[in-house]
Specification:
The chain has about 140 residues and is α/β, with parallel strands linked by helices. The protein has five helices and nine strands; from the N terminus they run ββαβααββαβαβββ. Strands 7-1-2-6-3-5-4-8-9 form a nine-stranded mixed β-sheet. A hairpin with a 4-residue loop joins strand 1 and strand 2. The chain is globular and about 45 Å long.
């Protein structure tokens, strides 16, 4: 399974459908899960159940990560990133750096199998907002 380096909707990230590849590339603790990134709602609905009161919030959110029952996910509508995601359906995603370190372009390029660059290039940007969704409550984490 390939390990992609791409500009996500928030920052430069590693993307793969194999979580093991991401753990290996980042040197990350095996107990810390990755978020899943989706660009189509029917794929998201097949894998997660978003509480009814939060569905509209998820559908219209921009640059926002949500956590439901300890599974982090992001629904992407940004055209450039969604165009890359669409043929694959979903990816595990994480920032493109060593675990606990800052962004280093050389580190990223040597770890990735495939590098995906579009008109935006590859640049570090602020991370997403994170919310935990309960049955009726919403809690801001970051």
């Amino acid at each position: 399974m390939s390990l992609y380096l791409a500009q996500t909707d928030t920052t430069v990230g590693f993307l793969s459908q194999d979580a093991g590849r991401l753990f290996e590339a980042k040197g990350r603790d095996q107990n810390k899960p990755f978020l899943k990134v989706f660009c189509e709602l029917h794929v998201l609905k097949a894998q997660l159940r978003v509480p009814l009161v939060h569905r509209r919030r998820v559908r219209h959110a921009r640059k926002t990560t949500f956590i439901v029952k300890n599974q982090a996910f992001r629904y992407v509508t940004e055209p450039e990133h969604a165009r890359f995601l669409r043929p694959h359906g979903w990816f595990y995603s994480t920032s493109a750096n060593a675990s606990g370190a800052s962004f280093d372009p050389d580190f990223c390029r040597e770890r990735a199998n495939r590098i995906v660059e579009d008109a935006r290039g590859l640049s570090e940007q602020p991370s997403s907002k994170i919310y935990r969704l309960g049955r009726t409550r919403l809690k801001r984490i970051r």
